[in-house]
Specification:
Blueprint (H helix, E strand, L loop, with lengths): L5 E8 L5 E6 L2 E7 L14 E6 L9 E8 L3 E4 L4 H11 L10 E8 L2 E9 L2 E10 L1 E3 L2 E4 L5 H15 L3 E8 L7 E3 L5 H13 L2 E9 L4 E3 L1
Parallel strand pairs: 3-5, 9-12, 11-13, 12-14
Antiparallel strand pairs: 1-2, 1-4, 2-3, 4-5, 5-6, 7-8, 8-9, 10-11, 14-15
Helix pairs in contact: 2-3
Length: 221
């Protein structure tokens, strides 16, 4: 995916989950943060960030904060809507894992959850839950960066679906370059780590999707 209207800015602070203060075009601006996770290791005073300019003149904020530069790593895309978009593009553009898809439905209702993608390949019925990874520690990716009850719920649903004959996947979109694998962040949310291990044992497969990440692009390799 390509962001068409972007600007560089300097991060100042983040008073709450939804907004941040940045320096852009020589002045201070309040911008919307497109990620409700903590991102504390990324959003530090003085770091360079990328803003996407909104075309909606009725918005309270003119920009969305979508990308952060991390020293010794590069750009990290923190747009929480981006992982599903790039997976959708990847599925429809000759990916190497799911070929000859005959049916695809985003936001598929299964049980008490909406699973990100349902696919059909002939007789195969496939469920994919997408998670974006932005936390890097010593060259490894970790998820989540904040407790996610919703994430645990989705894993439980995938376990159930696997037992009912679906082929199930958790797809980690690694929204930074130089990281090839994602591990459960047991320190931040042990329940998620336990649920992921239970899911693996039940037959749920884990995909580590490496990406090209630039100032204006996120694309699965």
């Amino acid at each position: 995916m390509i962001y068409k209207k972007i600007k560089k800015a300097t991060f100042i602070d983040r008073p709450n989950r939804f907004v941040a203060h940045v320096l852009v075009d020589g002045g201070e601006e309040v911008v919307h943060v497109k990620n409700t996770g903590r991102c504390k290791e990324l959003l530090r005073e003085g770091v360079q960030v990328i803003l996407e300019c909104s075309d909606n003149k009725n918005r309270k904020t003119a920009y969305d904060l979508i990308c952060v530069y991390k020293e010794n790593l590069g750009w990290v895309n923190i747009d929480s809507q981006a992982p599903n978009k790039v997976v959708n593009e990847w599925l429809k553009n000759n990916n190497k894992i799911f070929k000859d898809i005959t049916f695809i439905k985003p936001e598929y209702v299964y049980g008490n959850s909406r699973i990100d993608f349902y696919l059909e390949q002939g007789e195969r019925k496939i469920l994919i839950e997408v998670k974006g990874c932005t936390l890097e520690i010593e060259g490894k990716g970790y998820f989540p960066d904040a407790p996610t009850i919703r994430g645990v719920k989705h894993l439980k649903e995938l376990i159930k679906a696997t037992r009912e004959g679906y082929e199930c996947y958790v797809a980690f979109v690694i929204a930074m370059e130089g990281v090839s694998e994602v591990y459960a962040n047991e320190i931040t949310h042990k329940e998620f780590a336990d649920a992921l291990e239970e899911a693996r044992n039940a037959g749920v497969k884990v995909l580590n999707l490496k990406c090209v990440v630039t100032e204006n692009e996120l694309r699965i390799i």
